[in-house]
Amino acid sequence: MSVGMAAPRSVYACDPDRSRGRLFEEPPSRTRSPFRRDCDRVIHSTAFRRLMHKTQVFVSHEGDHYRTRLTHTLEVAQIARALARQLGLDEDLTETLALAHDLGHPPFGHAGERALDACLRAHGGFDHNAQTLRVVTALEHRYPDFDGLNLTWESLEGIVKHNGPLTGRDGTPIGRYLDHGIPAGISDYIRRYDLELWSFASLEAQVAAIADDIAYDAHDIDDGLRAGLFGVDDLKVMPLAADMIAEIARHYPGLDDIRRGAELVRELISYLIGAVISEAQRRLQAAMPKSVEDVRNYGEGLIAFPAAVAQAEAEIKAFLKLRMYRHPRVMRVMGDAEQILFDLFARYQKRPDDLPTEWLAPAGGASETETERARRIGNFIAGMTDRFAITEHQRLFDSTPDLR
User: pLDDT tens digit string along 217-233?
Assistant: First the structure.
């Protein structure tokens, strides 16, 4: 098969004509497959638009050229579609999951997630995957017959399980959920609509997950270079980057650092995509799944980096953690951002009338539990953009940190 040509649909791809359907039955679209319809609903959602003003690493007002949560999401979708096309998977479902994967992220990136998790620790904590599920099943109010977007079972499964199973067959939490249990947003929902937390998700979901890794490895290097947190030659401490930088120098001697960095990022994305395709094909050939159910029940993920590339990718993450995410400048801004959310959460708890009318307790709210009230406040804050959180803080407090 020539590079760039789409593979024929694989027997283990999700077939939109065999979708398990939606929680609320709807007439089929005359012009779109169920998965294409899901994708369009995500794109037209309010939560998707808000990603434009949510932090990836740098607060959105720090510069016009840094990634936001929206541009990150678009890059994930582009990489995910490329992988799906080569592996014969359903591109519409893959794109849906790539575009939806961060809908539940709060303002200020992972700093915001840490702050909300701390605020909600006594009420089940905060998990952005669980929040994404809340967004698409409850918090979007766009349709007359249901809350949320009423996505297909396959899309909901991929949102919840793209990083792997959450429980064992007996329902016992595993992995990252072993200590604190399944987040409330997920455990509550599966009582209504079983997403089979014990199984792996489709290959489309697995592709979206690894595309996320590829995208933020590459674009965080790009943003770190632009911000001056490190230089191109600093990346040579990683053998993979050193080899690529040397190859760029051979082809383009005397190239300026801006173009060297851009070429490195391009080469890195291409290399990682190629490595995933090769490893996926190897694993699929060994596993020989005949259906998407075989994929779900196989017992391990089938979309992954080869071992050597996984080690190189881990080195990239370690470098970025040390030189970017833990950089004093970034840590200072993110520390101030966390404080903004701590302040807002405490204020809304103490003075709930400061919330917008649509976020006040419903009529008869005296029966609302402390946990329900805290989660309602958490849902409101999680939906904020960076700039709205800052504006709200300025409205409610005498002094607001300058996140620069």
Answer: 999 999 999 989 999 99
**Which has the closest alpha carbon to 381: 403, 355, 401?**
355
Q: What is the DSSP string of 40-66?
A: HHHHTSHHHHHGGGSBSSS-GGG-TTS
Which residue type is seen at 16?
P
Separation in Å, CA 23 to CA 46, 86, 147, 158, 236:
21, 31, 11, 15, 51
- The torsion angle over the Cα atoms of residues 215, 220, 221 and 227, rounded to 10 degrees, is 150
**pLDDT > 90 fraction of the chain, expressed in percent and rounded:** 88
Q: What are the tokens at 324?
A: 């970017």
Structure tokens at 239: 């053998």
Asked if 335 and 112 touch (Cβ cutoff 8 Å), the reply is: no
Give residue 317's identity as a one-letter amino acid code: K
| Alpha-helical runs (H) found in 58-202 | 69-87, 91-100, 109-119, 128-134, 153-161, 184-189
Question: How many alpha carbons fall within 13 Å on the CB side of residue 150?
Answer: 17
Collapsed DSSP state (helix, strand, coil) of residue 353: helix
Separation between Cα atoms, residue 57 and residue 109, nearest integer Å: 6
- Mean pLDDT for 148-153 is 98
Show the tokens assigned to 358: 């649509």
- Here the tokens at position 193 are 């609509």
What number of other Cβ atoms are within 10 A of residue 38's Cβ? 30
Q: Is the pLDDT of residue 404 over 90?
A: no
Which residues on neighbouring strands pair with residue 167, listed in sequence order?
Answer: 173
Read off the tokens for 13. 């791809």
Q: What is the largest CA-CA distance in the chain?
A: 72
Contact 128, 162 (CB under 8 A): no
Q: What is the pTM of this model?
A: 0.95
- Helices (H) then strands (E): counts for the chain: 16, 0
The C-alpha torsion from 129 through 131 and 133 to 138, rounded to 10°, is 180
For 123, the token pair is 């009420």
Calpha distance 151→45 (Å, rounded) = 12
Question: Measured between alpha carbons, how far is 228 from 305 in angstroms, rounded to an integer?
Answer: 29
Are 306 and 277 in contact by the 8 Å Cβ rule? The answer is: no
Output the pLDDT for position 402. 87
pLDDT per residue over 351-389, tens digit each?
999 999 999 987 665 688 999 999 999 999 999 999 999
